[in-house]
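Predict the assembly for these two chains.
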Amino acid sequence: GQQVMQIPQYQHVQEGEDFTTYCNSSTTLSNIQWYKQRPGGHPVFLIQLVKSGEVKKQKRLTFQFGEAKKNSSLHITATQTTDVGTYFCAGTDGAGSYQLTFGKGTKLSVIP
Amino acid sequence: EAGVTQFPSHSVIEKGQTVTLRCDPISGHDNLYWYRRVMGKEIKFLLHFVKESKQDESGMPNNRFLAERTGGTYSTLKVQPAELEDSGVYFCAQPRGSGEQYFGPGTRLTVT
């Protein structure tokens, strides 16, 4: 079955430093979504990438989808303490279902 | 529009007991998903309802888990008898728009 690997598992950064998390799928994805889960919270949708090579930006966040639609990354520029949480990538295989296959997540800690 | 709600928010039970988790989705939406996150691991798909029918229950761990969706409205997930490895956070979610999932707040289940 489809597997999504995500690294690193943990990342500690000083406030103001950049942060990147990477996802790699064992199969070609129809699309990839990114979610953020704050401590004690639930996953909140950030963005969806659909096209090969797509790049989208949300303020300090940059999301990329690989040309082969098997890998993706999330980059945060100049992290802030409000960025803390666990970032998950999740892919769908496009087989007519919205079912998501999640990576293990990257837990981001920001040191003020 | 009201969001997805779940209760209880937290349940602590002893091994061998029964627990029922409930999800109240946004009305008028046919699709409903259950996911589970075991501590430190990825969020995993459990099953998918379309209205009251189980579209895909391939993620259900074993026959100790029983999910229902009465009249295509709220859904319940019963674990009987609970085992230690069932501990985790159980989320229900509904797809929106182009497929992004809207997650409920989750139920944290602790089996002691």
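The CA atoms of residues 21 and 74 of chain A lie 5 Å apart. Chain A touches chain B at residues 4, 6, 31, 33, 35, 41-45, 48, 88, 90, 92, 97-105 (CB under 8 Å).
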